[in-house]
Every structure is written in C-alpha cells, then in structure tokens.
Amino acid sequence: MILRLDPNGVPQIVELEDFRRLHCEFASDAVQLDNLGRSLAGVAEVVYPATVWIELGWMRQQGVNTDPAWLQKFDQMIAGAKSHGWVSADGKRVKAHAIWTANSSNRT
Description:
It is a single chain. This protein has 108 residues and is an alpha/beta fold. The protein has one domain. The chain has 3 helices and 6 strands; from the N terminus they run βββαββααβ. The chain has a 6-stranded mixed sheet with strand order 2-1-3-6-5-4, sandwiched between helices. Strand 4 and strand 5 form a beta hairpin. The longest helix has 16 residues, at 68-83. It is globular and about 35 Å long.
C-alpha cells in the first residue's frame, strides 16, 4: 500500500491489495510541502523527513467496500507491523516510511 496525494491534494491509498509493503510518496516541491499538513489532517502526521504516522481508522475505510477478506489481510499486515514496534502505543496509528519524489502527485 502506498499513501499519496492525488493532483488535488486529497490523500489516497494506491495498490490497496499489496499487503506486503507500506510507505508514503510525496512530491518534494515547495507548494506541496506547504500544503502537506493541511492535506493530511485527520489522515496522517509527517515527522519530517522520513516517518509518517497513518491513522488506522482512515486506512480501514479505504478498503474495498469493507470486504471481510480485505479486512482480514489488512489486520494481518497491521499485526506484523505491531510485532516490529511500528504501531503507536494507543493502537490507532501505523508507522510508514516517507519517500520524497520529484512529482508523485501526478501518479495514479
């Protein structure tokens, strides 16, 4: 799964069926950096430069119509992250790596 901002600055998860990896891709241009905090409000918190804490509730809502099989795989992925210490102490966020690209907002 990859967290990106669409061209309008709306957060989205792409590759929803990829439960083997989780990271965030953001454009490093000045305009996007200025708006990043606002765009991710309620979704994720960037701890610049390399860490992003993503809200698990929001991620679950991105699932394919809350398909039970998808939810099971998602929960297994989060259990694996927890075993590595990548889930917040309150269990509400998961830690992901931030990748800064020249123009990730134009990808789909």
